[in-house]
Amino acid sequence: MADKHRGHNEGSVYFDKSRDQWVVAITMSPGKRKKFYFEKKADALRKKNEALRELEQGTLPTGNQRKLGEFIENWLENVHKENLRISPYVKYKKLVRYIVAGLGEVWLQKLTPLQVQQFYAKKRKDGLSSKTVHEIHGVLHLALKHAVRWNYISRNVCELVDSPRVVSRKGTPLSVEQAKKLVESLKGHRLESVVLTAMITGARRGEILALRWSDVDMERRVLHILRTVDYIHPYGYVENEPKTKSGKRLIDLPEFYLALLKKYKVKQERQRRKVGDKWENRDLVFADMTGGYLSPSHLNDDFGKLVKDASLPHLPFHDLRHSAATILLSMGIHPKVIQELLGHSDISITLGIYGHLFPTMGQGVAQKWDGVFGEQ
Length: 376
Description:
Mean pLDDT: 89
Low-confidence stretches: 1-7
Strand content: 5-15%
Distance between the termini: 95 Å
CATH architecture of the largest domain: Orthogonal Bundle
Number of strands: 8
Largest sheet: 3 strands, antiparallel
Radius of gyration: 30 Å
Order of helices and strands: EEEHHHHHHHHEEEEEHHHHHH
Strand order of the largest sheet: 1-2-3
Helix content: 40-55%
CATH topology of the largest domain: hpI Integrase, Chain A
CATH class of the largest domain: Mainly Alpha
């Protein structure tokens, strides 16, 4: 048996009869050693050289072994949670549950790229969307980045894995004719103003449901998008500012819409007086019957029925946002204006979503050149 009492940055290989295994012992510092176990001596010798090299480079993990599930749950709750608002935190918890269920029992130090890649493939086979699997990858990658930083592991295996490609869902925007048909069918309905707001402004559902009358400037004919709201179990309704600086924006409003909004406000005031002290003074533009938030899920359900009653193809409420963009593009509105309207942080996002709607743009450029040089 080799001498176990070696100096700092040294290692030994010996056979342990009680375990019937070859042992690699690396001296990390005086009185502190790290051991690895192998069936074959050749594997042990290779590991000793590898471990000494990592120790010299400062990349040899020094932490105690722990299961991936235990580590990532602790990381989220005690480290990363303080960086997150409620909505993303709840989302992270859901993504971490997927990781714990699939890889939680794997030792953190023994996690391999193949295990991660196979885990992603299984999640897709089980029916998870490409976007969700991509988000799982992002959470796991970030958690393992911290594990490397804390020297629990020597490498982030997610960097050796193909990041799941997101397959975007194709929206089903309304044509101008379909939009007119929907608007006509909504006349007098309690959701008429809500739907028109989405169609005209391109605002997201959460942004619309968080609108206050103080955000509407009737004289200047503009709407301020300043916040968003969503119902998050078990926290209830949670308001946040938009995720990006460009999310806060000013939107010009057409005259016909302002006239509709003024009539809607009169009806709301009538309802407020009817309810009396039970009215919630939130100053919400689109409130329920007692002044509280409109339920996002109920809005989705009610809107689905309205679309069906109008004999139009199935249309999620969110696709009214796409409808606003595509209709404006069909009118010749510049993509930069569409970007600012939708609150995209970069025009590349806008072009990535709606670029396919410009198949004849090159033709227009060609015609311009014909006008300059074509007849000489």
